[in-house]
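Lecture notes, unit on protein representations.

Consider one protein chain, 577 amino acids long.
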Amino acid sequence: MSLIRLEHVTKLYDPDLILDDISVSIEHGDRLGLIGRNGTGKTTLLKIVNGLLSNFKGKVVAAKGLRIGYLSQEPELARDCTLRQEMLKVFEKRRALEDKMLLLAEEMETEEAPNLLAAYARIQEQHEQLGGYDYEHEINRILGGLGFSELDFNLPIRVLSGGQKSRATLAKLLLEKPDLLLFDEPTNHLDIKGIEWLENYLNTEYDGAVLVVSHDRYFLDKVVRKVWELEEQKIKIYRGNYSKYVETKKVEQLVTERAFKKQQAFVEHEEDFIRRNIAGQRTREAQGRRKKLERLERVEKPKSDAPTLNLSFTPETRGGNDILRCQNVGKAFGDKVIFRDMNFEVYRRDVIGIIGANGTGKTTLFRMILGDEAPTDGEMWVGPTLKFGCYAQELEGLNPDNEIIDEIWTLRPKHTHGEIRSFLSKFLFLGDDVFKRIGNLSGGEQSRVLLAKLLLTNANVLLLDEPTNHLDIPAREALEAALGEYPATLFIISHDRYLLNNLATKLLIFDGKPEGTAELFEGNYAEYLAQQQQALQANQPRENNQEIQNVQTNSLRSKSKSKRKRKMKAQRLVGSN
């Protein structure tokens, strides 16, 4: 039986048609990836499934008692609660039973009554059926997996960053374990370790259904088993993960093109015969062929690819061969050591992918390369003929009060109005789009403006901090292609593993340990991951596997100290009665 079914759903935002006669279903255990360009209606579809939108045609049929968890891009959490208190809300029913058990235990201290003992046993059984006292460990495990430290657990929600709030919302959803999880860009605020933890959790621990909107191709490959492509207001379903979808789509397009060309050749041949013979001796045959053509089911003309970014990064000057040299470089802010003993060299045309948890020093390194921060220890040498171009993760460097056209004009004041508009068309700003105010743009649109400004720097070294975060898949692919052709040096902070695999020649890994170091690895992310797995296997001999498994099992069974004391006290009271 389907968990939920959409029947002939049509949605308009006057006058635009967003969804047209959509009929799809979600089954138990489904792993679905919903993909499509920005603005095609993916979030609208999620809201319809979740019941947040009702003004549409068609209907949604949900299984009785269906529990849906929805991770939106705008988290809703209680500002005055601590992070831990917000997570504990998931277990209010279980905690209420604990309070009842405690009250009954206190009553049994002063009164011997069989009915109290029976009531306690009944409530205790309900509590154990819900999972008992293990929720404290589960909270710690999931928050830790998503990148929170124990020091974060008692922070008020109001002091958390936007990214931390998104991760907290995700943690709460996972703790709730609904029948259906709806994710809208779940990896945006996770580092690579957090993303990999989430992939493993969904693949090994969560048995409900998942519908995820994501532009993270690596995540889609790891998690989804079916792709819903939303294009031109319709959904087309493809079996397999994202890579399988890409392969199938290419074959499908090739078959369609060949069928269309073959049919067009046939139609032209028939029409030529009809023209030459309709009034001659073979009139009857020509008329017959014309009737057959009229009844012919035409192969639809293959759709031309939708416009995408047209990028080409060109250095104004070549720059030297030696780009950067670090010798025992360390950085601290007061007593807090960010990293230490960093030793590596970068040469022209290196592509350095930079990975690591938040707060380990990746952005600090960028500021040091630019000269905005000085090393605390060691020596950092930067090539003297370098011209830097920077892309900031938080989309800094844009004036929110400017119109798009003015934001670009400030960099090319001698260009004509037409030249600026022609340039902006490469970034998909067409017609009156160029007059949009920067402050009113979406994250993806602001990213495209920032990329336009970056291109105009003509830099010979690019420092990119999460450049794909706000881009849809076609835009990511266009950016990757342009950066792949860039004949100079790239530093890229990113958790986009697809990007790192396609571009990086070296990885700089910030390990995040106290007084952490940064290690340079020769190769891309897939090669680094393979090396890590080999090292892990080498360090875990077979005879230790059972011991490790026992430790993990004991850890899962651990309870908080206060809960254990409460339970033992109640059990002693029950035994004495």
